[in-house]
Every structure is written in structure tokens, then in C-alpha cells.
Amino acid sequence: MSALLALAAGLVFASGLIVSGMVNPAKVLGFLDVAGRWDPSLAVVMLASLPVAGAAFALARRRGATLLGAPLHLPSARDIDAPLVLGSLTFGVGWGLAGLCPAPALLVLGSGRMEGLLFVAAMLAGMLVHRLVERLRLSTRAPGAAHS
Amino acid sequence: MTLDWTAFTPMSAALGGALIGLGSAMLLLLTGRVAGVSGILGGLLGLDRRDMPWRAAFLLGLLVTPLLFAWAHRTPTIVVEAAPMTLIVAGFLVGIGTRYGAGCTSGHGICGLSRLSPRSFVATLCFMAAGFVTVLIVRHVLGGGA
Predict the structure, then answer these.
(1) Which of A53, A126, B59, B118 is an S-S bond match for B96, by CB 3.0 to 4.6 Å?
(2) Among partner residues A4, A16, A65, which is closest to B17 by beta-carbon distance?
(3) Any CB–CB contact under 8 A between A85 and chain B?
């Protein structure tokens, strides 16, 4: 059941990426190129998405559960730390190099393009490296020193 | 800075943005999950079986939507300027960066900002700034302007 609902959400989300043009890396780069001929569309996309998503978060928080009464899984991290900043900077460099971030990359892959396959395969490799490094770090740390 | 009025598409951007927000709202209100695509994809690598179906289903939605649009004779315009080697480097940086940074344009930029998370605000500033600087260097310092 939750899989069907998630599928529906994915279809609507992806439709938004296509309708807004954000599935097109050239258009995203037009936004990131502030020194060239600047296309502010991406800013409009984000601004338009915020009140809709914001209303949903406000409603979810007030109910303390989903509309079906299931528990919410919200991020619990609060610290503004080095991994957050350095990771986001690294992501931004990759985003600027290709004009692709994770969701549009999956749509480019889904439309059957080689570029999408290359990018998504490399992205999964990057995610796996993070996973392996973090697992190694946790396993070499003294058990008493572990914290979340 | 010069505004590119021919490329600027405020109406479709606003409609598409609202749909992205609606998709995020549906995932949250119907399944209790945050629509952060890097996190949903990264979580699939964790092999936690109970967690798999909704993640796979949401990502399947992303993968098949371009085909549905193509069937409806609305094939999306996709222009990839980056060379294959650049795509591989960029993909790797996006993969590892979004995992350390715990989010991407959707998780931090849309869901995080809309729930007023200070962490997401900082993350969004960081990846936006890095994106601006990267394009500035690639197009105007190395590329001699485009």
C-alpha cells in the first residue's frame, strides 16, 4: 500500500521536474551561470514548491502522523557540522559541472539516455564509497566511543 | 548579470515547482517520508528489506515519468552539454557529497527549507554557492565565456 502511494508521489514529483524544465541540465546551468545570460527559472521553481511542501509539513507536524495514522519519519539531526558543509559544497561542484542533481539524473536515465546512465552509475559509486568509508570508520572506533 | 528573458519561463517554473511541492507533500502525508531523492536512493544501498518497497516505488515513479510524457507526445527537452568524463566525475561528486551532506536539492532545498530547518538552509547555501562558482570557473575562467 505505502509502495503504491510512494509511486504516485514519485509520478507527481517527476512531472513537476519535467513541467518546470528542471529535468534539462542546460536549463539548470542557465540558472547557475550568474555571470552569463542568467535564467532565474530554478529560483521560481523552488519558491513555488515551498508553500505547498511547507503546508504539508505544518499539517503533518500538527497531526503527529500521516493522514492514514502512520508514523512520520522526519530527520533528527540538528548539528551544523563539517560533513554537512563539506558534503554540500562537494555536491554543488558536481551539480555545477554537469547541471544534474539526483532527481533529474534519474529522469534522464529513465528517458533512456546514455548520459543518465553514466551519471547515475558514478553517483551510486560515490554513495557506495561514502557507505564503505563510514562503515570502516565505525568499526575501527572503540565501542565505548560510539555516539549517534 | 544579464537576465536571459528568452530562456526565463516563470509560468511553467511556478506550475512545475508547485507539482514538485505536491509530490513531496503526498510522500510525507501518505507515507510519512521526506522526499529527499539522494537519501531515498542512498537508503536503497543499505539493504534494509522493510524499507525497500516505498523507496523503490518512489524512484520507479521518477524513472517512468519521462516515458509517460513521451507517450503523451510531450517528450521533455533534455540537453546535456557535459562530456562523458565530466559526467562521471560530476556524478561521483554528487553521490558522495549528497551522502556526507545528508541531502540534495530536494531533501534540503525543498523539504528542508519548507520545514525551516537551519541545517538545510546552510546546506542549500553551500551547494548553491559551489554550483555558482563551479559554473563561473568552467564557463568564464577556463572556457573564456559562453
Answers:
(1) A126
(2) A16
(3) yes
> pLDDT by residue (tens digit) across B13-41?
999 999 999 999 999 999 999 999 999 99
Q: What is the residue-averaged pLDDT of chain A?
A: 94
The answer, for A51 touching chain B at a CB cutoff of 8 Å, is yes
Q: b/e for B58-95, b at 16 or more Cβ within 10 A?
A: bbbbbbbbbeebeeeeeebebebebeeebbbbbbbbbb
Q: Give me the number of domains chain B comprises.
A: 1
CA–CA dist B137, B122 (Å, integer) = 22
Tell whether B64 is covered by a domain. Answer: yes
What's residue B1's pLDDT? 77
Q: Is residue B2 part of a domain?
A: no
What does the pLDDT read at residue B45? 87
Q: Which residues of chain A have pLDDT under 70?
A: 142-148
Whole domain around residue A110: which residue ranges? 2-145
Contacts of A14 in chain B (CB under 8 A): 23, 61-62, 65-66
- A5, A22, A41 member nearest B8 (Cβ): A41
Would you call B16 and A48 a contact, using CB atoms and an 8 Å cutoff? yes
Q: Does any domain span residue B62? A: yes
Please check whether residue B3 lies inside any domain of the structure: no
B144 band by pLDDT with thresholds 50, 70 and 90: low
Contact B90 A97 (CB under 8 A): yes
CB-CB neighbors (< 8 A) of B141 in chain A: none
The residue of chain A with its CA nearest to that of B119 is A80
Contacts of A39 in chain B (CB under 8 A): 4, 7-8
- Residue A101 and residue B95 in contact, taking contact as beta carbons nearer than 8 Å: no
Total number of domains in chain A:
1
How much is the pLDDT for B50? 80
pLDDT of res. A143: 60
Domain that holds residue B14: 10-142
Residue, of B105 and B1, whose pLDDT is higher: B105
